[in-house]
Amino acid sequence: QVRLVESGGGLVQAGGSLRLSCAASGRTFSSYAMGWFRQVPGKERNFVAAISRSGATTNYADSVKGRFTISGDNAKNTVYLQMNRLKPEDTAVYFCAANPTIYIDRIYNTEYEYDYWGQGTQVTVSS
Question: Which residue, 7, 60, 94, 111, could crosslink 65 as a Cys pair with Cβ 3.0–4.6 Å?
Fold first, then answer.
């Protein structure tokens, strides 16, 4: 089992940047494929980015491609989401998630494929 704790959210002006962190404790971090999702109140949780256990494979939602970067640091048991050129429509609660897959290069794009979730961190982008 793994415990996930997100941090790094906050208020930023449009065009600015934030870096979200997701610290994992428990089972070896490199045993998990990781993902980031976001949710606006009253709406479903949407995929943002994913990274494989090896770190060699990543995927992004079309809405963030070219602006967001997901990365992992196994030594720190942490996955990051670097968010640049933020837009008001990026405003949401951001969640990280972990999938204890046996496949080192597989990524997962739907919330149903993830077993463990953090509590979320709020990102607000003002116009």
Answer: 60
- Radius of gyration for the alpha carbons in the chain, expressed in angstroms and rounded: 13
Under DSSP, the state recorded for 44 is: -
In DSSP notation, 25-38 reads EES-GGG-EEEEEE
Counted residue by residue, the chain has a size of: 127
Q: Strand 92-99 to strand 116-117: parallel, antiparallel, or no bridges (unpaired)?
A: antiparallel
Q: Cα(62)–Cα(22) distance, rounded to whole angstroms? A: 22
Using DSSP's 3-state secondary structure scheme, residue 30 falls into: helix
Write out the DSSP string of 77-120: TEEEEEE-S--GGG-EEEEEEEE--S-TT----SGGG--EE---
pLDDT digits (tens, 9 = 90+) for 75-126: 999 999 999 999 999 999 999 999 999 999 999 999 999 999 999 999 999 9
